Automatic annotation (TrEMBL):
SUPFAM superfamilies per the UniProt record, alphabetical: LysM domain, Lysozyme-like
PANTHER family: MEMBRANE-BOUND LYTIC MUREIN TRANSGLYCOSYLASE C, SOLUBLE LYTIC MUREIN TRANSGLYCOSYLASE-RELATED
Gene3D superfamilies: 1.10.530.10, LysM domain
Protein name (record): Transglycosylase SLT domain-containing protein
Record's compositionally biased regions (Basic and acidic residues): 507-517
Keywords: Signal
Record-annotated LysM domain positions: 412-455
The organism of origin for this protein: Noviherbaspirillum album
Entries under InterPro entries matching the protein: LysM (IPR018392), LysM_dom_sf (IPR036779), Lysozyme-like_dom_sf (IPR023346), Transglyc_AS (IPR000189), Transglycosylase_SLT_dom_1 (IPR008258)
Domain of life the protein comes from: Bacteria
Signal peptide range in chain numbering: 1-25
CDD domains: LysM, MltD-like
Feature: compositional bias, Low complexity: 464-485
Family membership noted in the UniProt record: Belongs to the transglycosylase Slt family.
Length: 517
């Protein structure tokens, strides 16, 4: 008999007993054992036994597991020293970031090990976003792994007014690791793959071509002369974080303990549920709930067979128990698709028994702006409406198209010149001959010189607004954890992707603060 320790963590017990409430986000694929045999440890010792592996995992935390899996050659670069000094001289910031990372690290390390990837890549969100899944950059990069919109779409990360999967902890991690694997396959060098993650594979390839033309080595240090400042510092920053994690005592850093077990479990959601209701059922604060489920932009989670929410292990059981006793509607919201260009917010509010202010606030629509046809609005569910969920296809494609609230046309008077024809006048003013005749009660196409004609021409402001590319509504704002001082582009998601006029922005900001309060 091998003298294994008899204490078994509650998490291990949960796995062995087959927890009914959820599926582990990082599936350890453990078999079910006879509990009496397990508790007395009356089983032959086998180092490949999953149970033996789990019990031995209790002896180390995630930091030790990360150190064990380091696989990228250390970078010898003068910028590493300065970045290490930068991080180590800010122990409070470093500890805050690693504390925030403790929610996500086990899952990221588990996924890296499944793919046989170097575990220092688990530290990359430290550089990208300070492990803040709500981080948003000036380049519109979002989430813990900072995907820009186009790259996010390349990796099937849905971006709509209802959700932004670039912030989804599970989906964005899978996409980021897949992308890094792709880049490593292109360049055969992890440091160049990391540079490409920050700068783009095309940019790195062009730098390689320049180096080859100059008979220079193909490595990060040699290519850095062609890189922008941000990319020159990018890999050194990761190396600096790696140095501190490898030997925190050398830098007078005390890392928070991160248990070598999942922080969260996943729960499938097949019905719509308000975020505040979900948090209440799980007995979590809304901030903690959103820290694990930051992809939901609206106060409702639209249910489908693919929808998942993450909850800490203890709270998953509470969620299940409280849900069974709830007995009330889970969601107070529904969706309305605008199909008529003349449909105004006031009429929509009246239809759903609410106020224009409520619709503007929940959909982040500034004052003096209207919604265009094709927009999808979140609206309060009427009191006696049937329990019907928002269609999943509508959730995935929902967008918001706004325009200044100005008339579509304006009236002008045009004096007919000696050589003018109705066709020429119509062409100059972007209207039709039939319209001119209708507006002026003309029976024929000829009109005498000197006649004043009434025209309803397109309003220039309205034309300018409609000619712009429709923008998706920005994610709802929230008070995020402190942004990374080393990546100045990362910041809290704004309320609007394009800022409205100053008075309107202030009004909406005030409303957001009141709501947060």
């Amino acid at each position: 008999m091998h003298p294994l320790k008899k204490r078994i963590s509650r998490f291990t017990a949960l796995l062995l007993l087959g927890a009914p409430v959820a599926t582990l986000a990082a599936d350890l694929s453990l078999p079910l054992y006879n509990w009496s045999q397990v508790s007395s440890m009356e089983r032959p010792y086998d180092p490949d036994d999953p149970l033996i592996q789990i019990l031995s995992m209790e002896e180390i935390d995630v930091w030790a597991r990360i150190r064990k899996g380091f696989g990228i050659p250390d970078l010898d670069n003068p910028l590493v020293a300065s970045q290490t000094q930068f991080y180590s001289s800010r122990p409070d910031y470093f500890v805050r970031t690693t504390t925030r990372a403790s929610r996500y690290l086990f899952h990221v390390v588990q996924e890296l090990e499944k793919r046989n990837m170097p575990t220092e890549l688990a530290l990359l969100p430290f550089v990208e976003s300070s492990f803040n899944p709500q981080a948003y950059s000036s380049a519109h990069a979002a989430g813990m792994w900072q995907f820009i919109p186009s790259t996010g779409r390349d990796f099937n990360l849905t971006q709509s007014t209802f959700k932004d999967e670039r912030r989804n902890v599970l989906a964005s991690t899978e996409a980021a690791l897949t992308y890094l694997q792709k880049l490593y396959g292109m360049f055969g060098d992890w440091q160049l793959a990391l540079a490409a993650y920050n700068w783009g594979e095309g940019s790195v390839q062009r730098a390689i071509n320049k180096a080859r033309a100059a008979n220079q080595p193909i490595d990060f240090n040699s290519l850095s002369q062609y890189m922008p400042l941000e990319t020159k510092n990018y890999v050194p920053k990761l190396q600096a974080v790696k140095n501190i994690i490898a030997a925190p005592a050398d830098y007078a850093i005390v890392l928070p303990k991160v248990d070598n077990q999942p922080y969260f479990v996943t729960i499938g959601k097949t019905r719509d549920i308000d975020i505040k209701v979900a948090a209440q059922l799980a007995e979590l604060s809304i901030d903690e709930f959103k820290a694990l489920n930051p992809q939901f932009n609206k106060p409702v989670i639209a249910g489908s067979s693919d929808t998942q929410i993450l909850l800490p292990q203890n709270n998953a059981e509470k969620f299940k128990s409280n849900l069974a006793k709830w007995g009330r509607a889970l969601s107070s919201w529904t969706a309305h698709r605008v199909t008529n260009a003349r449909e105004r917010i006031e009429s929509i509010a009246s239809k759903f028994g609410t106020t224009p202010e409520v619709i503007r606030e929940v959909n982040n629509i500034p004052p003096r702006m209207v919604v265009k046809a094709g927009s999808t609005l979140l609206v309060p569910k009427p009191e006696h409406a049937p329990e019907k969920d928002i269609a999943p296809e509508l959730v995935d494609s929902a967008m918001m198209i706004t325009a200044p609230d100005v008339p579509e046309t304006r009236r002008i008077w045009v004096k007919v010149g000696k050589k003018d024809t109705l066709t020429a006048i119509a062409r100059r003013n972007r209207v039709s001959v039939a319209q001119i005749k209708d507006w002026n009660d003309l029976k024929q196409d000829k009109v005498a010189a000197g006649t004043s004609l009434k025209l309803e021409v397109p309003n220039r402001q309205a034309v300018a607004a409609s000619s712009k590319r429709p923008a998706r509504a920005s994610p709802a704002s929230r008070q995020a954890a402190q942004k990374a001082p080393v990546r100045q582009v990362a910041r809290q998601a704004p309320t609007y992707r394009k800022a409205p006029p100053a008075p309107s922005r202030k009004t909406v900001a005030d409303n957001t603060k009141k709501k947060a309060g």
